[in-house]
Amino acid sequence: MHVTVIESTAVSSSPVAEPNQWPWQVGQEYEYNVLSFTGTEFESETGNGNVLITNFIVRVLEPGRLVAKLANPVYGQAQNQQYKKKVFHGLDLNPVKDIDHPFEILVEGGRVVSLQIPTSFTDTYENLLKGLVSALQVDLSPTNHVHNFPNNFDKETFQGLFKKMETDVTGDCETLYSVSPISAGGLDDVLVDKVENPVEIIKSKNYGSCENRVGFYFGVPEGAVWNGIAYKENEKQFIKHTTETRLIVGEKGTIYKSEAMSSVFVNPLVYGKQKAEIYSYVGLSLSSLQPITSVEWPKTVEYRDVDSLLFTYNLTRLISRGDSNIADAQKLLQEMTPLLQDINNLPKADFLSKFNLLIESLMYMSSEQLAQMTASIEIAKSSENTAKSNMWVVYRDAVAQTGTIAAFKEIKSWILTKKIEGIEAAEVISSMASVLRFPTKELMNEFFEFAMSPEVQEQTFVNTTTLLAVTKFIASGDEDLFVNEKVIPRLSQELKQAVENGDKNKAQVYVRVLGNLAHPNILKVFAPYLEGKIAVTKYLRIQMVISLKTLANKKNEYVRAVLFSLLKNTAEPYEVRVAAALNIFLADPPQEMMQIMGHMTFADPSTQVRAVLANSITFAAGLKDPRFATLAKTAKSVLSMLPEEKFGYRYSTDSLIDDYTSDDELSHFREVSYIGSKNNLLPVYERGALRFGSTGWTEEDWFTLSVSDMQHLMEYIYSLFIHQGEKPKDEFEIKIKTILEKLNIKPEHQCDLEGSFFLNNWNQQMLLTFTEAEINSLILSLIKESNHLKQSIKSNYIKIVLQKDIFITFPLAMGMPFVFEYSEPTLLHVQNEAIATPGEDMSGNIIDKLQFTYARNLDGIAGYLDTFNDVYVAAGVVNKLQLHIPFRTRFDYELHEFRLIVEWPDRNANLIHMSVWPYTTLQKTDSLQTAAENPLSKVIERPKKVISTDIKFGQSIGTIFQFQANSYSSDYKDPTSLFDNDLLTNVRNLLYQKDIALTQFNLKYLARESKNKAFTFTVFTNTIYNQLQTKDEFEPAAVIKDITPEARRKEIINRVASEIEHGKVQLVDIIIEFAGRDTVEFILTGALANSYVDNKVQAALMYNGFQQQINAVFNMTKPEFTPLNFELALKNNLTIEYDLDILIGNEDNIHLKGVGKRSDMYKELLLNDPLGKQCLKDIGENNLYQKACYKMLLKAHAPDYFKGTLTYKDLKQTDEAFILNLLELLENWNDWEKEEDVLKTVDDGKLEIEAQAFYYDNYINYKLTSKFGEVRLNNVEGLSYYPYAMSFYAPLSSWERARNWFTGYQNLPFCTVDDNKVWTFSGRSYEYNMTGSWHVVMVDEAKDFGNELLILAQRPEKGQAEVYITYKTRTGKTLEIILTPKTYQVISNAKEICEDGVSIYYDDVAKIPLVEYYSIRGGFDEIQVFSINNGAIRLIFDNHRLVLFTDDHRSTTRGLCGQSSTEIRDDYMTPYGLVDSPQLYGASFALDGDHADPKTEELKKEAKLKAYQPVTKYTSILRSDAEWSKVANESF
């Protein structure tokens, strides 16, 4: 600081002779009229802001030295002004005090070097002067020019275009200069009389290229551009910020006019087309130019140097409340805590917005202040008073979201002193990764040491969560040396120690946290384990590959190379390879890799790998977001290579879907990926991810679930609930152990069970790992606590977090800081009081008093800080959502019945609240008011509401609800459009507006007006086997007079059992009751009856409610079933007949009678189907049931033509209107072609319906003819699985056939031992002629939890086969089946309940049939059909071939049918090793003995000699020999 006396020194010098003086002429005084403003506009042509009007006088004392001052400055806030158009009216401006002191400007030519300003000037005054001076800065010298631009400027013509780095108040950034002559007429707004040789200079700043950018930001999503223009594919424009300056100058150096305008465009809610607009303008117009007249500005003041025009930031002024922080925070807590006792008013009371204010109050507290706050509040922590204890919770969560170093240290002290521990401490520390605002090396080190400290590592839950938090936090910074030298080595050592100690849980944790770092050097840590140098389980190796996801997301080329190497190594377990495939698509594989992966989809030996690659390429090619442009393009380039084979959902897949339309539209990206399991329908690894946001930013909510062996886990859980029966004696004729010993079949070693669940949600991470020991420990603790089940368990859980928190500030042209804030405060509040009472025989009840609340705000605001008045001038939007569930429930359960009772509260309750509140505001920075509470806030309304409704409903059931809806948003012009898409998109469109406008929706429960406050839902189910035929004829629908439970159920059963022999009846009885002063009851009772030996299917339904009864009966005669021969199935005239009779009340019956057929056209298509031709070829070789024939049999049993007639006597007008309205609604939902012909009619009381399905083209044509005419609905879209679902092929149900289609025929896979071919469960087809030797078809000893199975087969004579089956269940039941061409014999210790037609043995422990079997005619021979263990295994035997269907015994079975692991290559494994020859493979499962076939024995011996053992060869991880290491070092 020094003192300067400002004097005038008249120096006469020509600016032409002294070019370095341009544009300031020594000895001249320039006076400018100044108009400067900054304003915010949103959804309107007017907005709020401030205006400065002054005169700016500049004297040039000597070359490079200017002195300036403001004269008569006036300033004020200006509301409802047109800032964009620079039109103002009714301004109320006041003088600005103490700013008219002179100050000095040092320049080099037109470039400002530094300032000298009075020390009394605040940063507000300093920044204003910088803004004014910046507008007059014009530097035509080549100083600081940008090299990579074709710069040019010619002094003679005074024209040019060049770029240079230039510093002004907004930043030291790349600036484009355009210098050109100005056309005539372009000087109308210049105030001086004459301008010699006018030139226009335009300056445009590029904020994407700055050497010194002023500002502060936090929480900006990766890829969101706010400081430049988004050019890259993975970037999207978040904030558009430009500054442009237009100057009119004379060639000799006079600046006649300058206009600098900063423009900022941003949506307050981050996404959407509607932008808040912030304009900051500095305009100077020369009013006089004359020689300096007065000798000096006579004032001597104290000055300080300012060495740059860069904006001077004082961040504490943005939010700081000074010394009042503690008092403010305490006041807010006292306001907020009581609100949690009145959930209905949370949205109105702005609870979550107040939570944001509380965080701001805490943000600028010192460590001492936070400690003082904690001391004053922690007393409430243990209080029995809920309101007081809630105060601690709110304070705790606010501190956790504060993100300052002081807050972090306070949380550390809480954990170390055990103020918080366990899950509570884990939830608090988990937030640190996302909220800590200053990722410095010192803070990283402190956090890391804290995470690794014994005090933390000894605490369950806290240890793992802290490690996740610190590694995620470290990954967000840029401290590469610290990560390499300290973090990775320490974590690597801990992983090594855990592996050596056999601590599987800890090993999983360190694998995950290393992956969290997303650093390439973690590959070196994982290398010895992936390369097999350090032995670990396959499961842990899979976890290592999976943990590379975050690094893959960064498109790192090293991880891409590692993943590709793992994928290509066919000697790796398929799970490891699939895990690599899932991640490699996130890493943007180049075209060369994609080409190879395309080839692998049909050439790779692993079905799972082929499936994941084919599915991933298909989905990736469909991505639309530009962020995925490279991936989508390379995927599309190989689409033509993919095989036609359909890989269903049983196989591994990577489903990537987005619904991107434009950057301004809200869209989402979702990923569902999994690694298919060898032995269970459920995968061994599943990953789900969801990203919301118009930009496709990389932040996402995601989870993973991993299990080492899914079948092991499911059987283990199953065993906890199913009583293990007494182990039966092994009295079978052929014993499994003997078979296993003969063939030397040894069960695979079963690894210990381990798994993990990972969740990345709400800016927090959670990891739960488990082994079988943890599961056992949990069960023991539950057993120990079972005595307390009858005691009431109370809980009060509250969690408040910021799902997102974004803050950005940077300076504008006038010297005011732009400020953007966006947060998503979210509340989860669960009050629970539960009591459980277990009973006998799987009965009991649970009573629960529940208060569940989920609330979240989308709270965004954009504007600027008026530093003269400490007022935030802004526009914002608050989107609120609250879901509140307040009721008492009781759940009663028995073997066949469960009942749910819901009791509504005695007070009114707002169940759902959703509102959108756009506004403008003038908010004091030290205010504790939310925007809604501020009287200066103004709601943005439009002239006309789009929707306005207030309705009450539920009167008919005595429980009254009120729906209120008011909105100005065009989103709701057509409410049905909100439900046009998939569920996820529909929910998104409902909750996140495209057109942001004032909106409020409420769904309320009205207790005072409700007569009935209890809701009961009861379901009774039962299955009756071998139901006796009750009637000889199927009767029309009739009223059921006695509707008591037993009577109506009996009547319904009688109706469906008529005309059916040995029927199986499935009964469902549903009662819905609204109980109270005016009880209302609804009853729905239905039954379905069918039989294996009867072609009839019958159903009956009764509905009773609103004093009306509706009855319906249905009868269908199924077509003849041809189980094994496609050729015979086509010859069979496939016809179904159906009758439907409906009785509404006591009116006349409505009757529908119709038929369904397979048309000749469809039959011809089946014959010409390539699969049909392949099937006929197989049949010609006497193989009736290979894959092609199986598919064609399903299709051949599907009718494609249907015709029916609906007859009625008196259809009410309301019913006719309902039908017409239904047709109109369906027409809106479907894309079809409609034709009408009013001349084609039928008699009144009749409606003819025809439907022709075109299964091969996926559409259906309908024709409806009534008394009004004929309506044709053509080209109604169908789905590919329709023929499978419509098929009448047994022994699979329609549901099973459809699921088989979706899962690539792996939901219920089949195996066929055909004449000379075998089709395995996994899909291998190989040639083999079974001989007279007994062959093992399937064998599974099932040691622990499974059911023991043995199936043997032999063919002693050509065309004659024999089958022997034994089966033991875990409940102690045994089954032995002996099948020969002439006889069959069934022996079991289960209860036999039927002998005639369908024989059934019943497992009275598991409450299911152990075996059901029957005979059907199939061609010339009788066919036996068996269903074992309630359909778990199904057999079809025609005395020659054997067909098996089962989803059990996955990967544990051995034999001719393979291992059923979904991997075809597993079906080359014999008891002796791998063999490639089909004949050797089949003979390997032949048994020695009296009937052994000599040729088979020779083949068996040959198989022993030629078999080789599979070898796992681990993948080399970025390893090179000496020669290639040298090349690699030279390359990088």
Automatic annotation (TrEMBL):
Keyword terms of this UniProt record: Disulfide bond, Glycoprotein, Signal, Storage protein
Organism name: Helicoverpa armigera (Cotton bollworm)
Domain VWFD: 1309-1494
Molecular function via GO: lipid transporter activity; nutrient reservoir activity
Gene3D superfamilies tied to this protein: Lipovitellin, beta-sheet shell regions, chain A, Vitellinogen, superhelical
Residues that span the membrane, as ranges: none
Keyword Signal assigned: yes
Full protein name: Vitellogenin domain-containing protein
SMART domains noted in UniProt: DUF1943, LPD_N, VWD
One Pfam family recorded for the sequence: VWD
Span of domain Vitellogenin: 24-686
PROSITE patterns the UniProt entry points to: VITELLOGENIN (PS51211), VWFD (PS51233)
Tree of life domain: Eukaryota
